[in-house]
Amino acid sequence: MTLTLTQRLDRIRVRIAELEYWRSRETIEIDGWAFEGEPIAIGSSWPRKDGTVRFSGAITLPGHWPLDDARLVLDLGGESLITIVDEAGKEYRLGLDPYHREFLVPSRSIRIFSETVARLPFGEPVQHPRLERGAVIWLDTAVDRLWLLLRQISEAADILDGHEVTPHLLDVAEQAMRSLDWPSATAAYVARTAPSPIQQKIWQLPPVEISPEGLNQSQRASVLEAYETLVGQLKQLRQRFPPQGEIALTGHAHIDLAWLWPYSETRRKMRRTFHTALSLMEQSSDFRFNQSTAHYYAQIAEDDPGLLARIVERVKAGQWETLGGMWVEPDTNMPTGESLSRQILYGQRYFEKTFGVRHTVCWLPDCFGFSGALPQLLRQGGMNSFFTIKVNWSETNRFPADLFWWEGLDGSRVLAHTFDNPMQGYNGFVRPDCFVPTWKNFRQKDKHETTLLAVGYGDGGGGVTPEMIMREEQLRFFPALPQARWTRVHDFFRDAHDTAARKELTVWQGEIYLELHRATLTSQSAVKRLHRKAERGLVTAETLAGLAYLLGGEQPASMERPWRVVLKNEFHDILPGSSIAEVYVDAANELDAVVKEARSAQMAAMKSIAAQLPAGEGNNVLVVNPSLSERPLRLTLSDGSTIAAEGRIAPLGIAVLASEALQPKSGLSAGRDYLENAVLKVRLAKDGSIASILHKPTGREALEGCGNRLFVYPTDKPRNWDAWDVEEDYAARGEEVTRLDSLELIEEGPHRAAIKIVRTWRHSRITQVLSLGANARRLDIQTELDWHDRRVFLRTLTGVAVRHARATCECAYGVVERPTHSNTSWEAAMFEAPAHRFADLSEPGFGVAILNDAKYGHSVRGNVLGLSLLRAPVYPDPLADEGIQTFTYSLMPHEGTWYEGGVREEAEDLNQPLLALAVTDRAAGRWQPLAAVGIDAALSAVKPSEDGDGLIVRVYEPAGRRGSFELRLPPRWQNMGVVSILEEPMEEVPNCGLRPFEVKSWRLARS
């Protein structure tokens, strides 16, 4: 009878499975366990499961056991950091999780201690934790190695289905199995195989021996002989069927800074994972492991300084590779360009200070899309290479390349690589059935002979296992498979750059949009707003302190400490809104503290500015413009009153104004259903939506249909990833919120007029105040949501009397144009996309923009501007966006394009109004300590240099223009030249001028 290859493979798998039950020659259960100092028996439930608990135990090995073959086997009921203390008192720390349960025994007598939580790696609670297992085994290493080798052969035969080598692999595996002299004594055989799935299905097993006999010497000899024969046969087959392809392996443990667990648990995950990785390096000199994220190492320095010292040693030895060059692995859709610059600045500085290395590779495997600003910033930060796998997650269109040049907004390029591993992506395995599809999916194999593959359990940490180390060693002599070797990521990219210098590669221009996880632009909106306020608050505090210094004040101190807090909370599962509730409690507290610290620093800087100005008398107001754009005189005074006056404040200008300079601009009027000034006339419909916005300078009606129509989508229920995704059919059922609880004119002053509208939808309330300042060019819509409904999506839609094929959306350090139609699948997939402070639709001569101070999810379809205001998912936080939150968005008609109409400048004003301070001892006047001449530029930062020597001024060209640009400094100051975002000289860059979307920094010093 002839079996098919599939039947033969099934038979081999069944026979291989039996070997596992003879891995242990002898087993001794560990008695005398203690839980928090009190006795606990194996199999017993924990007395309590909250927080971190501690187990302890001890064991002495039998004298006839070889120490090298002894293994400690533990399952304490949750994740643990275990400490093994040997006879000499030396401590060995290791991570215990479902993938790391067997450990080397360092001496014949050991004591065991643990820090344990009743959780699994992905944060799942262990509802009924028990002390499941505590034993030492005498490992039959011969059986263990053969068992693994035969499994790898079966995996290879399966994945190489159809390859000529497959029947040969089955032949050698069958020969090896037939050559074994295997035990058959009934009592031992039944006891050994009792844990097998098939035996566990039996109605009632007979009594079994507690310590069944293992292999005898003759049987073990047959195992050793079978292994050596099998290795020889595989090597012969490798000669006949050489390796196909090459894979660069990097050991890896993706540890989400916070996700389905709070950050306090991440701190424990770090220690568990890092100790495990170090232990594997002691077992294998070939093993290579990478770990990104400067923040993790800074945290380890606090929690476990000895661990960091060991990591530093392995970094110097070349086995442990620090990676990434950033403070954390951040989301890149929502942070400002300055935040991304600080990620690199503080990340690279920390790595260089701690490890003596500066990174050339940006490592972002798991972010939800990538800003087109990144390539320029990476290059300025010393990084010429970029890695992710997330582009392979797009659901509609396949990204066209996996080794390519990524070209940013300004034309800067980095070499980018992604691999497509269908077995857990960046959490790959050392297995034939992982290697083969990863190599098969590598599309640039005609250009470069190697693809990268990161292996190790991740997201919840854990990393590489001892089995993966042994697998790599065995796979070195396998036929037909891709050849794999442990490699440093930097070395992989060095070789890839050599290839890119010789061969033409695909070029991808601009942002990398992920066709998935679009709801991360909106979920957990309250923390998104706090983040916006925190990063803006720090930039403003630094700018004010810098202006004070330019006027003659003291050198300001670095604000790296609060910036680190902001950067931490930009992590790609915090800022996007995809974590559990506990994470957002921490994030809100941390960011709120930064906001308060920034306000305090701003006030101190305002007082310092005032101290540098000429003395005088009168009840005056000090006004500071913290931007590089001229601003209309709009203020909120300390008593809460609003000023909307005729004058303007110069870029980075300072003014001390008397009361007569604060008189309102004329022309403001209002009624219950209208607001009007010299620029806009706004009329409301009966349902409270906006019926008309007349732009008086052009005579154009801005709206087509009604504006600020609020829609709720109660079918926002994704297939997967509740907090992450919004499906393309969400709009198939939309309910417009038209019910009015009240509509009243609440303010009719000379500076500002406002109408308050209150609506109810089901269990939630929406309160909006539509306001128009006397000198306003935009209609502000201040919104308060008191939300108490689940799994609904709230958006505002405004149809405008404008037609164009592309809309303009602000992004980090520039703008990106997006289609307003769905001609192709690529365009259709972009139905929800990121924008920062504005999105604009313009035709020649006229346009309309929607501005915001806290939102990121936008759509522009046809002539409808859409802004996403709130989602209410139930996983992983059942109460996401529950309760009260406030924010403001605005509608702004304008003449010309978005650039000509000053849309960005109005968005700046909305997000960071002018600063005001009442002064009674300063003379009226105006000052401009730092000025710019040339084409319009936007300010990124005026910050203290990190080395304490002067100021760093950073600007960017925001619109894609080119022209002259230079800074004008006050007396006794000099421009020391262009520096990178790492604050190092860029001598090859001219001191003057700006290119399209260029980010440029200068060091200024007192002469």
How far is the first residue's CA from the last residue's CA?
95 Å
Q: Please state the average pLDDT score.
A: 97
Low-pLDDT stretches = none
* CATH class placement of the largest domain: Alpha Beta
**Structural class, please?**
alpha+beta
- Number of separate structural domains: 5
Number of helices: 19
| Quaternary structure | single chain
Work out the helicity level: 25-40%
Give me the side-by-side strand order of the main sheet: 32-33-34-35-44-41-40-37-38
**CATH-defined fold name of the largest domain:** 7-stranded beta/alpha barrel
Q: Please give the CATH architecture of the largest domain.
A: Alpha-Beta Barrel
3D structure, described in words:
This protein is an alpha+beta fold and 1007 residues long. The chain folds into five domains: 116 residues, Galactose-binding domain-like (Jelly Rolls), CATH 2.60.120; 271 residues, Alpha-Beta Barrel (7-stranded beta/alpha barrel), CATH 3.20.110; 96 residues, Substrate Binding Domain Of Dnak, Chain:A, Domain 2 (Up-down Bundle), CATH 1.20.1270.50; 230 residues, Golgi alpha-mannosidase II, domain 4 (Beta-galactosidase, Chain A, domain 5), CATH 2.70.98.30; 77 residues, Immunoglobulin-like (Sandwich). It contains 19 helices and 52 strands. The chain has a nine-stranded antiparallel beta sheet with strand order 32-33-34-35-44-41-40-37-38. Strands 3-2-4-9-6-7 form a six-stranded antiparallel beta sheet. β25 and β26 form a beta hairpin. α2 runs parallel beside α6. The longest helix has 32 residues. It is elongated, with a radius of gyration of 33 Å.
